[in-house]
Amino acid sequence: MARAEPPAASFERRVLRSAAEYHYLRVRLELPDGVTRPTVAQFKQLVVSALRELHGEVGAALPVDVLTYEEKTVSAILRVISSGLVRLWSALTLLGFYQNRRCAFRVLQTSPFLLALAGNSRDLVLD
Amino acid sequence: MSVPSLKRIRQVPRHLLVCEKGHARHPRSRHAAHVWDHAYNCRVSFLIPECGLLPEVLKSTIADFGEYYLVRNLSVHELVSHEFIDAFVKKGSCYALTYNTKIDQDNTAALLPNGKLILSVDKDTYEELGLQGRPSQYSGKKAMRYAITIDLTDSSFHPDSKKHNRVLWALKDKKPLEFDILLAWYHTGAEESTVMSYFSKHQIQALKPKITFSTIRDLQCPVLDSNELEGKPEESCSTEELFEWLGAVWNQVSLDNKSSSFLSTYCCPQPNTVVEKAFLCTITGFIIPEKITQLLEQLCCYFGEPKLAYWLTLTVHGFADSPVSWRESEHGFHKGGENLYNFVIFRNLDYWLQMAVGSYDDCPP
Question: Secretion signal: which residues (chain B) (predicted)?
């Protein structure tokens, strides 16, 4: 006996204002030549120490996820709880040293939607 | 620390996510209208679970995406000339957008298919141009950015009118504006596209959208119920969870982390199932809504035959530096210029639509 098809969905619209639980940042760590590129664990440790330096122990306890990491380019996608975005971004901006060598974090793209980081029209290169 | 500073440290940039659900074959369904209203798209991607090989009809739809053009150093007054208007604007849908201009820093121009030319310019350019416009909605108390809209198909814009002469004088003599412009022209007619020959005196390139295919094996997919946008605990996932999961898949994020992991605690929303394989396709370039509508229709027809998949998704990213998002709503770049939408098409042709915009955007229609 054929199973009855569920009824067609009725129209519904919901608008969620500033409701994203997390914010995402695509970052790249610029390092001088000759410095060994950090592994993913070292990268995460660097982020935590940047938070500790600027925001103390409470800042260091801010849950940050390294969703992806590419060792070749030292770039990563970070996820942070929305209320912690300012703390994380300010900590990354003010981090100046890695293994006693000058370094800089560049925030390439940020969004409350992870899907938005999948495409960046500013990176569109046409021959 | 005073209370206002504490509040600022926890501040979140404003953003909107509009979630709609409906049925694609309903006579009053507006799902296609949202695609039509979003003029400038730089990336179209779709994901089909339980699919190893793309059906021929979808392959040919993608191959038929047509060409778009990049014209270098084109003066904006050429888009206002009546030869151009009669040859392209009035005879089909003409889309144009400046390439490599930043909406928050540089001057930008865009031509919508309804014949409206939009110039988003800084204060100095606006004052030098001397054309009627209005301050940008997102410019703050001191207007540093202005938007000028010129309706090229307006009856009062005929070749000898005062309006036309003034616009031409402003753009040709007073303050010439030159950009690299992405152009696309859609027409329903048998004749060949004449864009290349019209701009033969300029540096013009015809480009085809870049297409990439890939397959993922053993992918964890959330379980969805088309009637439950908010999800049901233990039964189905919500639309926000799906939106985040889709972002994770497209960014190649690992979906399987333990909550005690040092690096990442992200995992696929529950409940989920593991599909043996999933087909992913990405198309990048200057893509017009006409082609996206055709692709959407073919994806709806995918379920015309029995398939293992319960749903598939179609994601479209807009240009971060376009002066408009949906219809003629002003779009800006605050901390991000996101204006994207995503369809989830279910087996029974129910659909979910998520439209996401950032701080400097109106609510999508």
Answer: none
